[in-house]
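Box 4.2: Ligand-aware structure prediction
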Amino acid sequence: MEQEQIFQSKIDSNQSIEPKDWMPEKYRQTHIRQISQHAHSEIIGMLPEANWITRAPTLKRKVTLLAKVQDEGGHGLYLYSACETLGISRDELTAQLLSGKAKYSSIFNYPALTWADMGAIGWLVDGAAIMNQVMLTRTSYGPYARAMVRICKEESFHQRQGFDIMLTLCKGTEVQKKMAQDALNRWWWPSLMMFGPRDEESTHTTQALKWKIKLKTNDELRQMFIDQTIPQIKLLGLELPDKDLKWNEERNHYDFGQIDWDEFWKVINGDGPCNKQRLESKRNSWFEGAWVREAALAYAEKKSDIYI
Ligand code: 3HC
C-alpha cells in the first residue's frame, strides 16, 4: 500500500518511472501491452508502403519513401527495446505478433491501392500518429517517453512528405486530383479510428489517465486531429470527405459524421480487408529470414571466441 502511494505521488508530481523503480504489476502489464502494440504497428505499417517503393513515380520519391519505411522499422526497434526494459524478451513479443495474439493498429489492415495512397498515408496516418504520440513524449514511463521524442521528430518529416505528394497531385492533371480525392475519401474514416474507441467504450482510458500514460482521451485527440486537418484539406482544394463536417461556433470545434464502429471492431478483431495478408506476409519473412538470424548469431559467437 505504501509503495503504491509513493508510486502514485511520483506520477502526480510528474516524475518519470524508470525500469528499476517499484511499479504495480498492472502498470507494467499495461505498458507491455501498449508499447508492444505500438512497436508491432510500426513494423506492420512498413508493409503497405514498402509495396510502392518499386512503383514510385520519380527517383526522388523512391528515395524518400525508402527512407520513410526504414524509419518505421527503426521506430519498431526503439519501442521493442523500451518494452524489454519491463522484463519481456523481443522473441516473446515477436511470437505474440506472429501468432495473431497481439494487436497492432487497425489502420494497417487497409489496402494501399494507388500512388496517392502514399500521400494520404503520410499526411493522415502519420498525422494522426503524431497527434497521439506528442502526448506520449510526456508519458510517465521514462524509456517509452524518451523513445517517443525521436519518433515524433521523424514522424513530422513523414507527414510533410505525405502532404507534399498530395499537393503535387492536386496541382497536377484532373486525373491526378481525382486520385488524391479518392485516397482522402478512403483513408479519412480509418484515420479517425486510429485514436481508438469512443471514450465511453474505451477499457483502459480511466486508469491510463490516472497513471499519466495518456494525457488526453481518445475522443479529445480525435477532435484535435479533425480540427487541424480540415484547413489542410481546404488548402489542397479537395472536397471534405464527410458531408456532416461543419464548424460549430458554440463548441469551437468541427462537428463530424458517424464513425462506423462496427467496422472498427471487425478490423481490430482480425477481420479487416488485409488482416490475413499482413500477418501472412510477416510470418513468411520471419521464417524465410531465419538463416540471416542464424548467420548473425554464428558470426557473433565466432567473434567473441577470438577475443576470449
Ligand atoms: N487499432 C487496434 N486496436 C486498437 C485501436 C486501434 N486503432 N484502438 C484501440 N485499440 C484496442 C486497444 O488496444 C484495446 O485492446 P486490448 O484491451 O485488447 O489491448 C481496445 O482496443 C480498447 O481500446 P482503449 O481505448 O481502451 O485502449 P488504449 O487505452 O490502449 O488506447 C491507443 C488505444 C490510443 C491506440 C493507445 O494504445 C496508444 O496511444 N497507443 C500508442 C500509440 C500507438 O500504438 N499508435 C499506433 C499507430 S503507430 C503508427 O501509426 C505508426 C506510424 O508510423 C504511422
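In the box above, the bound molecule is 3-hydroxybutanoyl-coenzyme A. Strands lie at 246-248, 253-255.
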